[in-house]
UniProtKB/TrEMBL annotation:
GO molecular function: high voltage-gated calcium channel activity; metal ion binding
Record membrane topology: Multi-pass membrane protein
Entry keyword set: Calcium, Calcium channel, Calcium transport, Disulfide bond, Glycoprotein, Ion channel, Ion transport, Membrane, Metal-binding, Phosphoprotein, Repeat, Transmembrane, Transmembrane helix, Transport, Voltage-gated channel
Main location group: membrane
Residue span(s) of domain Voltage-dependent calcium channel alpha-1 subunit IQ: 385-419
Protein name per its UniProtKB record: Putative voltage-dependent calcium channel type d subunit alpha-1
Transmembrane regions: 12-30, 42-62, 74-92, 138-158, 227-251
GO biological process: calcium ion import across plasma membrane
Record-linked InterPro entries: GPHH_dom, Ion_trans_dom, VDCC_a1su_IQ, VDCC_alpha-1_subunit, VDCCAlpha1, Volt_channel_dom_sf
Length: 433
């Protein structure tokens, strides 16, 4: 069942169903016949039943804990639940007014969001947007300060302008008499909507009169020629500087994440998790040690070795990895991921491995003081002579392989009666290892 729900054919079928469901939702129009509405409702029930079947199949394949451990699966479950509530209220109790039916119908449209998890390029854009939020608060703070300063100045300059002139852009919905109203006027001006008319309505002309409730009365002119400098400077700062900072921050993050895919980054973790799940379908967090070399040859550099890497070369690289080997012949997910990242970034990989591990353990304890000792021992095992690691296993495998090749060559040379250079050849092979 796990192989079925994780296969490409199953994903393609879901993609077609989601797109068909979205097109069905777009077929609704105002004043449609009752027969047409009934046909759309029947199609909605069919789609809901199919997606509910998807939920059941994934529950059977992943189990409850693993299924709800994925945020996309939780999102899909909420969509299915909302669809069933929609059917219940619209079909079983069509006249109920307990809750708005249109709210639950929004869940059908939200199913299209699930497609965002399928494409690598779309995931990169989403990751860029999320990473940009770390810098956007500073830009937003700058905009808030700009709006606050200009709103206060606008209240002082144009707060007494009357609202009775029908030809003026200053009215009861668009004025500087209160701070919230002033912010709304500035927001409208920042979008470029008729900001010139608002500026002209604030100039010191005969048509611009003060409010009746003001001290000056409605006969005195109440505008200011500073409105030209006020609105033009505000529009330039917002449209050409501040707003473009948002775009600059997002583009800078996108350029950093896509500048060179050979640079190890968070986007490589998806590939590692996806290929690991092929060898760990029950999500136990461990795989057989014999599958490690195959796994890393499937993962492209810089995290893995790549499919073009020969098997013997991959085994040699695994010798330098100090992943602990469990008693049942398996290796842990955390230990494997940490080992490949450490090797790729060359973090404390030179010199004696035990000394390098102790130095790395000290650095981790200093930076991440709350790291549990169990997790630390799992990813960076302490020095011990009796511990069996993946590196020692593959070192033994290569020694045996060299010995078999050496023995085979010796037998071939013995049959051809050539000079015996077996000892030198064996020493050269072991020295190379």
């Amino acid at each position: 069942m796990w192989w079925f729900v994780t296969s490409q054919y199953f994903e393609y079928a879901l993609f077609v169903l989601i797109m068909t469901n979205t097109l069905t939702l777009a077929m609704k129009f105002y004043g449609q016949p009752d027969s047409y509405t009934y046909a759309l409702d029947v199609m909605n029930m069919i789609f809901t039943a199919v997606f509910a079947l998807e939920f059941v199949l994934k529950i059977v394949a992943f189990r409850f804990k693993n299924y709800f451990g994925d945020a996309w699966n939780v999102f899909d479950f909420i969509i299915v639940l909302g669809s069933f509530i929609d059917i219940f209220y619209s079909e079983v109790n069509p006249g109920t007014n307990i809750i708005s039916i249109n709210f639950f119908r929004l869940f059908r449209v939200m199913r299209l969001v699930k497609l965002l998890s399928k494409g690598e390029g779309i995931r990169t854009l989403l990751w860029t947007f999320i990473k940009s939020f770390q810098a956007l608060p500073y830009v937003a703070l700058l905009i808030v300060m700009l709006f606050f300063i200009y709103a206060v100045i606008g209240m002082q300059l144009f707060g007494k302008i009357g609202l009775e002139n029908e030809d003026s852009a200053i009215d009861r919905n668009n004025n500087f008499q209160t701070f919230p109203q002033a912010v709304l006027v500035l927001f409208r001006s920042a979008t470029g909507e008729s900001w010139q008319e608002i500026m002209l309505s604030c100039l010191n002309t005969e048509d611009v009169r003060c409010d009746k409730a003001s001290e000056e009365g409605d006969q005195a002119p109440c505008g200011s020629d500073v409105a030209l400098i006020y609105f033009i400077s505000f529009y330039i700062l917002c449209s050409f500087l501040i707003i473009n900072l948002f775009v600059a921050v997002i583009m800078d993050n996108f350029d950093y994440l896509t500048r060179d895919w050979s640079i190890l980054g968070p986007h490589h973790l998806d590939e590692f998790v996806r290929l690991w799940s092929e060898y760990d379908p029950d999500a136990k967090g461990r795989i057989k040690h014999l599958d490690v070399v195959t796994l890393l040859r499937k993962i492209q550099p810089p995290l893995g070795f790549g499919k073009l890497c020969p098997h013997r070369v991959a085994c040699k690289k695994l010798v330098s990895m100090n992943m602990p080997l469990n008693s049942d012949g398996t290796v842990m997910f955390n230990a494997t991921l940490f080992a490949v990242v450490r090797t790729s970034l060359k973090i404390k990989t030179d010199g004696n491995i035990d000394t390098a591990n102790e130095e790395l353990r000290a650095i981790i304890k200093k930076i991440w003081k709350r790291t549990s000792p169990k997790l630390l021992d799992q990813v960076v095992p302490p020095a011990a002579d009796d511990d069996v690691t993946v590196g020692k296993f593959y070192a033994t495998f290569l020694i045996q392989d060299y010995f078999r090749r050496f023995k085979k060559r010796k037998e071939e040379r013995a049959s051809q009666k050539e000079p015996n250079e077996s000892t030198v050849a064996l020493q050269a092979g072991l020295r190379e290892l």
